[in-house]
Write a structure and sequence with these properties.
This protein is α+β, with helices and mostly antiparallel strands and about 130 residues long. Helix content is about 25%, strand content about 35%. Strands 1, 2, 3, 4, 5, 6, 7 and 8 form an 8-stranded antiparallel sheet that branches. The longest helix is centred in the C-terminal third of the chain and has 17 residues.
Length: about 130
């Protein structure tokens, strides 16, 4: 797995739906943020799937070139703090065949995510953490 830095920020624009953490670990939210990011990335020409739940947060699959990148959205310590990061996975057979990792695609999607957050007036205090 190859992962981007984590973006943290604050915003009250992403409401938490009652029971949405039933599909993730308890206290992990981010469905409305993932849906919003999917829409925003789509307006930038990236093909995005629907938001789906994982234990660690809400994800959006993004097609970048011929590779897939996942964007993960999760709540922070308070109801208006959020974390977003991107990752790619290279399967066993891709490694065996010597297929390069998706660093370029990961960077492309991560930069688009940063641009979406920077352009949104409802998003404040974006910090990039390694």
């Amino acid at each position: 797995m190859k992962q981007s830095p984590i973006l943290t920020f604050s915003s009250s624009a992403f409401p938490i739906a009652p029971g949405e953490d039933a599909d993730t670990n308890p206290g992990i939210y981010g469905k409305s943020l993932a849906q919003w990011l999917s829409q925003q990335l789509g307006t930038r020409g990236l093909a995005c799937g629907e938001a789906f739940a994982e234990d660690f947060g809400w994800c959006v699959g993004v097609k970048a070139g011929d590779r897939g990148v996942h964007v993960v959205c999760a709540s922070g310590e308070t109801s208006d703090t959020w974390q977003v990061f991107c990752f790619t996975e290279r399967g066993f057979f891709e490694k065996l065949r010597g297929r390069p990792d998706a660093t370029q695609e990961l960077e492309q999607v991560f930069d688009a995510v940063k641009d979406c957050l920077a352009a949104a007036p409802e998003v404040k205090d974006v910090v990039e953490e390694e």
